[in-house]
Recover the amino acids of this structure.
């Protein structure tokens, strides 16, 4: 059965291009042209992935993402015409799984969509396995319930922040490069945007480190990558 994807874009020419290419790849495509329509369609149609433009009429893509993330863990790929790093960070902070800056190649967009759908499909199987919670000192990661806590208090993590933390916890003390993390956590099978990894690492440190500027749990191994100590 074809995966259902909601594409939200107010540029009708780009929306038509995206829909044409995604339908050609075999996806079931539904669309919206503003933020209010995106919320209504997402709630009604329950897509398996959302491609969401940032600059939208009525409600911005950021606001749509923030609202949807409280209701669902559907993968969200944000599109932005802005190049400022703050826009990318905001999108990731509020729960987007990834972002792409316009203009982008259709080949890369399709690769990211395939990767995100593959990861989402794998995540659906994880609760059935019911793995035991992982405890690393006062940090606990419960993959079955998709929850993490520090000193008994539940952490507010975006879906991708949790995926990254859980992967590093399952492989603690092992060092992974940005490219390896993109492949293992995001599912990319090509050289993607490694800045995505750095942003997620930064936000995770804000939530699990006593001194994020001097991390002792989620550490950088110079010239190699990142690891979770423990």
């Amino acid at each position: 059965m074809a995966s259902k994807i909601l594409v939200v874009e107010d540029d009708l020419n780009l929306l038509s291009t995206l829909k044409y290419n995604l339908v050609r790849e075999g996806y079931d495509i539904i669309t919206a042209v503003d933020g209010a329509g995106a919320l209504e369609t997402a709630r009604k149609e329950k897509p398996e992935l959302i491609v969401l433009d940032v600059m939208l009429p009525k409600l911005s893509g950021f606001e749509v993402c923030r609202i949807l993330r409280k209701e669902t863990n559907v993968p969200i790929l944000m599109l932005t015409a802005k190049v400022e790093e703050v826009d990318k960070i905001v999108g990731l902070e509020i729960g987007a799984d990834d972002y792409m800056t316009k203009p982008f190649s259709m080949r890369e967009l399709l690769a990211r969509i395939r990767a995100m759908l593959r990861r989402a499909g794998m995540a659906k199987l994880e609760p059935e396995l019911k793995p035991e919670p992982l405890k690393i000192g006062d940090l606990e990661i419960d993959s079955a319930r998709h929850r993490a806590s520090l000193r008994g208090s539940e952490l507010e993590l975006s879906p991708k922040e949790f995926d990254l933390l859980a992967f590093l916890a399952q492989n603690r003390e092992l060092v992974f490069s940005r490219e390896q993390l993109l492949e293992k956590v995001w599912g990319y099978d090509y050289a993607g945007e490694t800045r995505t990894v750095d942003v997620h690492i930064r936000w995770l440190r804000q939530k699990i480190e006593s001194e994020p500027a001097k991390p002792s749990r989620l550490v950088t191994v110079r010239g190699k990558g990142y690891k979770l100590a423990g």
